[in-house]
Amino acid sequence: MGAYLLRRLLLVIPTLFGIIAINFFVVQFAPGGPVEQMIAQLKGHGANGLSSMTGNGGSETMPTGNGAYRGGRGLDPHMVADIRKMFGFDKPAPERFLLMLRGYLTFDFGRSFFRDKPVLQLIEEKMPVSISLGLWSTLLVYFISIPLGIAKAVRDGSRFDVASSAAVLVGYAVPGFLFAILLVVLFAGGSFVQWFPLRGLHSEGSEHWSVGARVLDYLWHIVLPTIAIVVGGFASLTVLTKNCFLEEIRKQYVITARAKGASEQRILYRHVFRNAMLLIVAGFPSAFIGILFSSALLVEIIFSLDGLGLLGFQAAIQRDYPVMFGTLYIFTLLGLLMQIVSDMLYTVVDPRIDFEAR
Fold this sequence. Notes:
Layout: H1 2-27, H2 34-45, H3 77-86, H4 93-104, H5 119-154, H6 159-173, H7 176-187, H8 211-249, H9 252-259, H10 264-276, H11 278-282, H12 284-302, H13 308-318, H14 321-349
Helix pairs in contact: 1-14, 5-8, 5-12, 5-14, 6-8, 7-8, 7-12, 8-10, 8-12, 9-10, 12-13, 12-14, 13-14
């Protein structure tokens, strides 16, 4: 197992490099970079706005920029050159890419173009919100989907199975962000009642409250975002759980156990459970990463949760390339590491699996 783990860890390096390189060079052709946005702001507010917008003195690890700027007509060419230098775009793309990689080796992602903060500091500030939302959502998805999937498998074809399939169908059909909008309309002051807050995870001034009051306030704020993600994510896991258990229940060893007089509960939880739960339990890290970095994105935007999803969305709109590439690096690295953790969990759930033998 040690050799297999070492090979997987070494494979992370070229995979991470390839993803970053492809995205870097794709962005070179994207219009509307930070230089163009700065020029547009200067045209709208006058050239004297430059001095108030140059607090970000550039960084050695500026990830990218457009090769040739064509939107600065009418401005002093020296001013355009200063803006390009301020953002680090006076260097050719290969040099910027190498500088970026050198910084990434030490987790130095440079500074945000428009927030005047180190990218790593921004990620550290936003990460707790996203992890909190993703963890609660993932746990609830599993706590709902696994018992429901087992019940549907045991009662396959019954009225309960048919009726519960309606809830699963809703989960499939309604994306999480649409359900989030519905929750806002119904329960957050949209058109009906305002039982829950609409913004953030804490009320204003809650830092002065007692610990118990802050915990209750946090739980009150996180109810609607968590429900929105859970409704959009429990359906596929429920169906997967049902199919896994149905496949195991129909195998010969279950028939043999019944012939020996074993009870249904013993067969289900002593024999079937471990084999059926292999794929489901081992997939927990990947499911958490998926909810954390994809499903929660629009939900964070709708509920104004200051997490990684909202940070990435704003960085993409503003063409804040250090933040975009810094978060991409973190997301990709975590995703690759979680895949390795998933493989390790396979061996924990079923010791008969030996990746080294493969």
